[in-house]
Specification:
It comes from Trichoderma guizhouense. This is Purine nucleoside permease. Keywords: Signal. InterPro entries: Nucleoside_phosphorylase_sf (IPR035994), Pur_nuclsid_perm (IPR009486). This protein has 11 helices and 14 strands. With 419 residues, it is an alpha/beta fold. It has a domain of 242 residues: 3-Layer(aba) Sandwich (Rossmann fold). Strands 1, 2, 3, 4, 5, 6, 7, 10, 11, 12, 13 and 14 form a 12-stranded mixed sheet that branches. A two-stranded antiparallel sheet has the order 8-9. Helix 3 packs parallel to helix 7 and helix 4 packs across helix 9. The termini are far apart.
C-alpha cells in the first residue's frame, strides 16, 4: 500500500533507522532516485509499490549529513532501488549528495542515478507536463549581474560572463562547475524507456498554453500535448521568469556548450549534484557515466504576449504543478523498469559513452568539447590512496591551478573564445 509519511512517522523511522545502523548490510542499489523536495519524493513513496518492483519504504536508512527535513534514504527490501530527497537549491543538494556518496551504508559503484525534478520549461522546445532528458547542465547564473535599470538601453541582459565586459562572450574565468556533460547514449536509452509512459495533461493547462500560439511557429511546441524530449537544463538558485532572462540563459547555454546545448528546462540543483558525482567518480565511489538528468515542466519560464513578466509569475495559475509531479513518476518509473529488466545483459556492465562526459576541466579524462579544453592533458585525476599519494596529488592540484590562472590571464588579455 502507498505510505504517506507524516512528520511523527518520519521521526520514528529516523529513530529506528539510527538504532539499526550497526545491523543492516551494505546496500548496493541498481538505481538511486534523487528528488529535490517533498512532493517530488512523495510521489515515489506513494506509488512505487504499485509498480511490481517492491515497496520503496521497506527500508529507511538514516545517514549523517542529510537534510534535517529529509534525513532518510528509502529502499526496497532487496535494495535494488533507493530514493533520496536532497533538499532544494545548489547548497542543500550538494551537501546531501556528499553525505550519500560518503555513507558507509551504501556501495554506489554500479548505481544509476536518476535525477528527477520538476522545472520551468522553455515554450520554444517543450510544454507544461513534458519530460526532458539532458545531455548538458549549465550553471547559467554563474556570472556578473548588473541591475537592468542601470544598463545601456541597447543591452539585451545584465548578465556578463566572468572576466568580460559585455554579455555573450565566453568567460575567461571559470570555476569548474559551469557545464557538465552526461552520457548521451544513456540519455537516449532513458528517453526510449520514458516513451512508454502515459503522460497526464489537463484542459486548464492547455488553455493557458494556447496563449503562446500568438507568438508564432517558434513556439508551436508550447501548444502541443506533453511529450518526452531530449534537451538541456539551466541551473540557477534564482527563480527567474521573463522573456529577457530566459533568452539570456538560452544564449548562455548555447555559448557555453559550443553551440551544442539546447536549453529547455530550468533547475536549481543539477550542477550542485553533478559536481559531487564528478568528485566521487575520481575517488572511485560512483560512476559518472551512470547519471541520468530528467526534468518535467511545471510552468513556463516566460509569459505569453498577453501577460507581463510580473503577472506571469504572481497572478497566473498555469495549473502545471500536479501534472509535472505525476509525469515525473510516470516517465521515471519506466526508466527504472528498463534498467532493472535489462540489468544482466546491458546495465550491469554499464552503457559506454560515445561523447565526452564530465566537467569543464576534463577532470574525468578526455577532452571537453566546450570551454578551454582539458587542463589535465586529457588524463583523469587520480584519487589519493596514501599519504604520499595525497602529497603528490596536492602538488598536481597546485600545478593545475597554475595552469588555470595562466589561462585566465591569456584569455582575458587576448579576448579569445568569443562567439
Amino acid at each position: 500500500m502507498a505510505m504517506l509519511l507524516t512528520p511523527i512517522l518520519t521521526m520514528l523511522l529516523v529513530a529506528v533507522a539510527v538504532h539499526a545502523q550497526s545491523f543492516h548490510r551494505v546496500i548496493s542499489p541498481k538505481v538511486m532516485i534523487i528528488s529535490m523536495f517533498e512532493p517530488e519524493g512523495q510521489i515515489w513513496l506513494d506509488k512505487f509499490s504499485y509498480s511490481g518492483l517492491g515497496n520503496l519504504t521497506s527500508q529507511a536508512i538514516a545517514t549523517p549529513g542529510l537534510s534535517m527535513l529529509y534525513p532518510l534514504v528509502f529502499c526496497t527490501q532487496s535494495g535494488s532501488v533507493c530514493q533520496l530527497t536532497v533538499g532544494e537549491g545548489e547548497i542543500n543538494s550538494a551537501v546531501s549528495m556528499t553525505a550519500l556518496v560518503l555513507s558507509r551504508s551504501f556501495n554506489l559503484t554500479q548505481t544509476y542515478f536518476l535525477l528527477a525534478g520538476i522545472a520551468g520549461v522553455n515554450p520554444r522546445h517543450a510544454t507544461i507536463g513534458s519530460v526532458a532528458f539532458a545531455r548538458y547542465a549549465v550553471q547559467v547564473a554563474l556570472q556578473y549581474e548588473i541591475d537592468s535599470r542601470s544598463l545601456p538601453q541597447d543591452w539585451p541582459t545584465g548578465y556578463i560572463p566572468y572576466g568580460r565586459a559585455h554579455p555573450f562572450e565566453y568567460p575567461c574565468i571559470t570555476y569548474g562547475t559551469e557545464v557538465f556533460e552526461l552520457n548521451a547514449n544513456l540519455r537516449d536509452a532513458a528517453h526510449g524507456f520514458a516513451q512508454r509512459a502515459q503522460l497526464q495533461d489537463a484542459q486548464e493547462t492547455r488553455n493557458y498554453c494556447l496563449l503562446y500560439s500568438e507568438m508564432g511557429p517558434p513556439y508551436h511546441t508550447a501548444v502541443m500535448p506533453p511529450s518526452v524530449v531530449k534537451c538541456d537544463s539551466a541551473t540557477s538558485d534564482v527563480y527567474y521568469t521573463g522573456g529577457r532572462l530566459a533568452q539570456a540563459f538560452e544564449n548562455t547555454t548555447s555559448l557555453w556548450t559550443n553551440g551544442t546545448g539546447v536549453y529547455c528546462m530550468s533547475a536549481q540543483e543539477d550542477n550542485g549534484i553533478l559536481e559531487v558525482l564528478v568528485r566521487a567518480t575520481i575517488e572511485g565511489l560512483v560512476d559518472f557515466s551512470r547519471v541520468i538528468a530528467m526534468r518535467t515542466g511545471s510552468n513556463f519560464d516566460r509569459p505569453p504576449p498577453s501577460r507581463t513578466d510580473w503577472e506571469h509569475l504572481t497572478h497566473t495559475n498555469q495549473n502545471g504543478f500536479h501534472i509535472a509531479i505525476a509525469n515525473l513518476y510516470a516517465a521515471g518509473i519506466q526508466v527504472v523498469r528498463g534498467i532493472l529488466a535489462d540489468w544482466d545483459c546491458t546495465f550491469a556492465r554499464g552503457v559506454t559513452p560515445s561523447n565526452y562526459i564530465g566537467d569543464i576541466f576534463g577532470s574525468l579524462g578526455g577532452h571537453p568539447d566546450f570551454g578551454f579544453g582539458s587542463i589535465t592533458g586529457g588524463r583523469k585525476l587520480r584519487a589519493a590512496e596514501s599519504r604520499r599519494g595525497r602529497r603528490r596529488d596536492n602538488r598536481n592540484v597546485v600545478s593545475l591551478a597554475g595552469v588555470e590562472m595562466a589561462r585566465r590571464r591569456t584569455f582575458g588579455a587576448k579576448g579569445a573564445m568569443k562567439m
